[in-house]
From TrEMBL:
Residues 4-149 form the NADPH-dependent FMN reductase-like domain. It comes from the Bacteria. It holds the Pfam family FMN_red. InterPro entries: Flavoprotein-like_sf, FMN_Rdtase-like_dom, NAD(P)H-dep_reductase. Transmembrane segments: none annotated. GO terms for molecular function: FMN binding; oxidoreductase activity. The lineage of its organism: Bacteria, Pseudomonadati, Pseudomonadota, Alphaproteobacteria, Rhodobacterales. This is NADPH-dependent FMN reductase. One of its GO terms (cellular component) is cytosol.
Length: 183
């Protein structure tokens, strides 16, 4: 069975390495996963007053996540935590109370950074919110991608075979696990 996976990227800039990484991951993924990118850069900051007249971008995000069966997060680390764009998307999708669009969806968290720590802080802060949102998260292999500013060629392909193998392994594990969870 083909499973619909929403992809959220935690960087909004055009040349984002996280976005390149997300595309590379979708290309290396097994065939049972079908991906669609969900944009989060246009979401007004969460403000409960706006629920009276829901912003179009919020409605779109909620609809797109509702239509997905699983969610893949690919994010850089901002100040040892998760970028505000991702946190805001989680907040927007979690409300109104009792109508969270995230509930129960199996997630993959991939973090990346130019440095050596691979976005560990972002990865685990994101996991903290996903516990409360009742999203099971793939535990192994963990995906902290260091040095991601040097990973891609001009076509956005992963240059290094070892890294390509590792990314494939992550996606295979996610595909198998999603199939098991969703049945
Ligand atoms: C960063 N960067 C960064 N890197 C890191 O390893 N740990 C960190 O805590 C931070 N903090 C941070 C804060 C802010 C506001 C910015 C803009 C950047 C550097 C970051 O990893 C680098 O800019 C990446 O290239 C961002 O990912 P994208 O935009 O290429 O996907």
């Amino acid at each position: 069975t083909e499973r619909k996976v929403a992809v959220l990227v935690g960087s909004l800039r055009k040349g984002s390495f996280s976005r390149k990484l997300a595309h590379a991951l979708t290309e290396l993924a097994p065939k049972n996963l079908h991906f669609s990118f969900v944009e989060i850069g246009d979401l007004p900051l969460y403000n409960e007053d706006l629920e009276a007249d829901v912003p179009a971008a919020w409605a779109r995000l909620r609809r797109e996540i509702k239509g997905a069966e699983a969610v893949m997060f690919v994010t850089p680390e901002y100040n040892r935590s998760v970028p505000a764009s991702i946190k805001n998307a989680l907040d927007v999708g979690s409300r109104p109370y009792g109508q969270s669009v995230w509930d129960g969806k199996p997630a993959l968290v991939v973090s990346g950074s130019g440095g050596g720590i691979g976005g560990f802080g972002a990865n685990h802060h994101l996991r903290q919110s996903l516990v409360f949102l009742n999203m099971p998260v793939l535990q192994q292999p963990e995906a902290y991608i260091g040095g991601f500013n040097d990973l891609f060629d001009d076509q956005g392909k992963v240059k290094n075979e070892g890294t390509q193998g590792f990314l494939s392994k992550i996606m295979q594990a996610y595909g198998d696990w999603v199939a098991k969870i969703l049945g």
